[in-house]
Automatic annotation (TrEMBL):
Residue stretches making up the Urease accessory protein UreH-like transmembrane domain: 8-216
Keyword entries, A-Z: Membrane, Transmembrane, Transmembrane helix
Protein name in UniProt: Sulfite exporter TauE/SafE family protein
Naturally occurring in which organism (per UniProt): Vibrio gelatinilyticus
Membrane-spanning parts: 6-32, 52-75, 81-100, 137-159, 165-188, 200-225
A Pfam family of this chain: DsbD_2
Domain of life: Bacteria
Length: 228
């Protein structure tokens, strides 16, 4: 397991409070009975299926981006394309740290870039509702994985520099796995976790951890570029 996969998992774990705010409410609503439903769908099964769809979506996006960048690098005569892109990814980590720590919300500007795509994709998700069976939560989660999210976009920059479609898929998968503990919790336990992640001490520790990871990666990229 590479340090990037560990980093992606850790960032998913530390930034899960943001995921709960973006997707947690939707995931909870899926377990409520609709007017047409005969009974309340099993909450745990629906949640598992929803998150399975979400992880598949993340992995697919990572594979597409990682594979596309790897192909561009292979065709390029510039030997340090990945190093430059890795430096950009490090900058995104710094932006993410500022966002998690609530020091600066510049990352929200990046989220706006995905709104046009979301306008096209979101109606497909509406067609999955109300859920006829728990299995219908899988395609709904897959579509919801395309929700504009600065946290996801930041990790996607790491998938871009993974060097392959497989590497990109694994990077996004490990990030998604890091968000799972928070996303699978419901009710009071989720509220307690959200309170912890919103606390000043935890928030700053998480932000500093991400910041150090970004600075470490950025420093390594600068050293490589300056030595050539």
């Amino acid at each position: 397991m590479t340090i990037d996969l560990v980093g992606a998992f850790t960032i998913g774990l530390l930034g899960a409070g943001h995921c709960m705010g973006m997707c947690g409410g939707i995931a909870s609503l899926l377990t409520l009975p609709s007017a047409k439903a005969q009974a309340t769908p099993p909450a745990l099964l629906v949640s598992l299926n929803y998150n399975l769809g979400r992880l598949v979506s993340y992995s697919l996006i990572g594979a597409l981006v990682g594979g596309a960048i790897a192909s561009i690098v292979a065709l390029s005569e510039f030997n340090h394309v990945l190093v430059v892109l890795r430096l950009i990814a490090a900058l995104f980590m710094i932006l993410l740290a500022c966002y998690v720590g609530k020091w600066w919300n510049g990352l929200l500007m990046v989220e706006k870039l995905g709104k046009n795509v979301w306008r096209v994709v979101s109606p497909l998700g509406q067609k999955c509702l109300p859920l006829k069976t728990p299995a219908h939560a899988i395609p709904f989660g897959f579509i919801w994985g395309w929700l504009p999210c600065g946290l996801v976009y930041s990790i996607l920059t790491w998938a871009a520099v993974s060097g392959s479609a497989l590497g990109g898929a694994l990077t996004m998968l490990f990030f998604g796995l890091g968000t799972l503990p928070a996303m699978l919790l419901v009710g009071s336990q989720a509220n307690k976790l959200k309170q912890l992640q919103n606390s000043l001490i935890f928030r700053n520790i998480a932000a500093l951890s991400i910041l150090l990871f970004g600075l470490y990666t950025g420093y390594g990229s600068v050293i490589i570029l300056s030595s050539n």
